[in-house]
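Deviation from plan, reported transparently: 2-oxoglutaric acid complex.
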Amino acid sequence: MRTESNFQLSESQIQEFYKEGLLHIDFSFDHVLLDKIIEKTLPLYDQGMLKKKLPGLRIQDGWKQIEEIRQLAMNSSVLAALEQLFGRKARPFQTLNFPIGTEQLAHSDTLHFNSVPKGFMVGVWIALENIDKDNGPIFYYPESHKLKEYNMRSFRLGRGHDFYPQYEQAIQKIISKKKLTSSLGEIQKGHAIIWHANLLHGGSAQKDMSRTRHSQVTHCYFENCKYHTPLYSRFPFKQYREPIWIPESPDYVLPEQAYLPPTRWPLRLRRNILSKIKNAKFWENN
Ligand SMILES: O=C(O)CCC(=O)C(=O)O
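Because the crystal trials were delayed, the predicted structure below was used instead.
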């Protein structure tokens, strides 16, 4: 069961989160737990890539294999803070562990994880070691969460990962056009950054190749929403998903991953529209 926490954000921290789209916070995590995560994840990465410090290394949903990752993702103080920020219980559903800087271009998580009602999602990024400008900190654009939610349709792109590089380029243009300036998430071991789902952020390159950048990010939705993936949705249909929630205690049985079919027009309506299009073409051609 979830252990209750009496952790409380101050009013100014709550205001900062909504003003900046991000909150840097020290939850006083147990450093022994953080070290265990590093120790247990290290052998799981591709050792050749790790040696060369090639970006792209990650472990997705390591909580299924490593109990300490689950414990950090389900930390009761973090969950209490998220509930305070959003007025709903947080539901962590994905972890990513990284050993080095990711070099991910700017994006907002609303493209990958959105909800109805919209925006009930955050990333909780935890430094497993000290992070400064030389070992690939995250970067972010303060207040960019107030921009509209850009998705593939905003840029007339197809859906899916094949078009993702074009989405990233379109976001770069928005950043230049709006003259947004970035900040670096330089934080100490054990500190966390909570970002708003619509905040533009990414990962900077590792400058010091002798170092690592161990970090864990937990992606969280909130209770009582419907969940969908705009990257894979074709307007006006939403590609809904049924996330596997990270369990509250270690004695869990994993449910089957459920992928929901995209929503569809009712069949009769679809037939009517198709026949109207067909007829229109017939009259155009005759
Ligand atoms: O850790 C990083 O460098 C970036 C992580 C990120 O962008 C994400 O999890 O959405």
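The CA atoms of residues 14 and 85 lie 6 Å apart. We consider this an acceptable substitute for the interim report.
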